[in-house]
Amino acid sequence: MAKLAVITLAAVASAYAAKSFFPDLSPFFLSLPLLVLLPFALFSGSGSYTPPGPVSFPIFGNWLQVGNDLNHRNLVDMAKKYGNVFLLRLGARNLVVVSDPKLATEVLHTQGVEFGSRPRNVVWDIFTDNGKDMVFTEYGDHWRKMRRIMTLPFFTNKVVQQYREMWEEEMDMVVRDLRGDRVAQTEGVVVRRRLQLMLYNVMYRMMFDARFESISDPLFQQATRFNSERSRLAQSFEYNYGDFIPILRPFLKGYLNKCRDLQSRRLAFFNDNYVEKRRKLMAARDGKRLRCAMDYILEAEMNGEISSDNVIYIVENINVAAIETTLWSMEWAIAELVNHPNAQQRLRKELWDVLGDEPLTETNLQRLPYLQAVAKETLRLHSPIPLLVPHMNLEEAKLGGYDIPKRTKVIVNAWWLGNNPEWWHKPEEFRPERFLDEEKEVEAVVGGKVDFRFLPFGVGRRSCPGIILALPLLSLIVGKLVKDLEMVPPPGVDKIDVTEKGGQFSLQIANHSTIAFHPIAP
């Protein structure tokens, strides 16, 4: 009845305003607001006890109030108004936002099966061919099979040990290049591009036993261009209106066609230049002497476990989920260390005190607690996936005492869990030592003892398996750079710009940083 009263009052107010501006308007037109809104008020409720949220309207729901931009900071503002779990009705979609560690535990762990699926969206369906990948597919047998097949060649300690020397080799080349680059030492360089080459070589050597010779390598340029455009189209908020409100979807025709065209050319690029080459090598060796991750995946295809479509979408997932997110974190870490020279100096002192002339390797990361703290503080302050990858319940569920309608998109604001001043001391500050002092028990883990205030990789069944690669890769490159190079702003600049650029579920630095690198004398 309260909703009915509010709707009726709004309709009467609209009619009164219309009468003031248009005194000759007929009674029928004056009553239109009430005629439109009254059925919604009478029939939209089903007796369920759903989470609080703003009053929604027919067809549009809350879209007219909240718009397209549902970034992590905007959702924090709404949580302060509506509570730690609230509901937005966005056209035909329901969205529940969780901003509390206990409720996050429910979604990700306690009710991990109930909320274990992924929501669909008109753009993601194009980029995953309706869930033929692992990251965005619904929870069930297909997901379990894809996760198992991807884990063996990519996400185990054995894989780390197999490839760690290759990682270190690629990173040492970065340090060597910067030490020998006069422009890097004087004017500064946009270091992202060189880190991008390093990271692509790490992942493509693991995946395809292939590498790019330089930034000017045509294949590297094509791969990065395809992946960058894919991220831009998928992460944009500008298509939300057509996804939320089906009657507006025709206006998305051009956008969706652009997505389809890009994905067609992009997958053909991966298939023609990499997958088919490995398939031919596998056939020539009769499946023996597996050398890289793709060989294991193609073996699963030959055994009938997955299809050729699944193979190419595994490649798609690695290109986006493994490479891009790790690169964002590297950029953030470097920018923060440049802006906090005391932290950079403390890290360099630890590296030289502990290692001396010994090179930094994956095996000695555990001896460097401040380096680990820098990595964790970067992931806390600048979560690469601030809302994690969205979850969904296939059937009606309960959360925090509320009824959650089936097929509701459920997002956990992991950035706010790690930046809420109620739970963290001065969370807005980049202060790695917090993880050596008051937060020394907090680890970036996805299993075992989990602190649900700190979830950069999620947790539970749908957590990111890439943590086993991302953490050591981030720590290694940051440590190697700081040990051998002093990183400072370019001439005429006091601070590196750390303005955020958010996406559907991404958080990257808006302006790629120009950094000057001064070699440290041995």
What does it look like?
This protein folds into 2 domains: 1-45; 58-519, Cytochrome p450, CATH 1.10.630.10. Helices cover 52% and strands 8% of the residues. The protein has helices at residues 2-21, 27-30, 32-43, 63-66, 72-82, 101-110, 122-128, 141-154, 157-179, 182-186, 192-208, 218-235, 240-244, 253-284, 293-302, 308-339, 341-355, 369-381, 414-417, 467-484; strands spanning 85-90, 93-98, 189-190, 391-392, 397-399, 402-404, 409-412, 485-488, 500-502, 507-509, 514-519. Strand 5 (397-399) and strand 6 (402-404) form a beta hairpin. Helix 7 (122-128) runs parallel beside helix 14 (253-284), helix 9 packs parallel to helix 20 and helix 11 (192-208) packs antiparallel against helix 16 (308-339). It starts with a helix and ends with a strand.
Furnish the topology, listing elements before pairings:
Blueprint: H1 2-21, H2 27-30, H3 32-43, H4 63-66, H5 72-82, E1 85-90, E2 93-98, H6 101-110, H7 122-128, H8 141-154, H9 157-179, H10 182-186, E3 189-190, H11 192-208, H12 218-235, H13 240-244, H14 253-284, H15 293-302, H16 308-339, H17 341-355, H18 369-381, E4 391-392, E5 397-399, E6 402-404, E7 409-412, H19 414-417, H20 467-484, E8 485-488, E9 500-502, E10 507-509, E11 514-519
Parallel strand pairs: 2-7
Antiparallel strand pairs: 1-2, 3-11, 4-7, 5-6, 8-11, 9-10
Helix pairs in contact: 1-3, 7-14, 8-15, 9-11, 9-20, 11-16, 12-14, 14-15, 14-16, 16-18, 16-20, 17-20, 18-20
Cofactor: heme
Signal peptide: 1-17
Protein name: Trans-cinnamate 4-monooxygenase
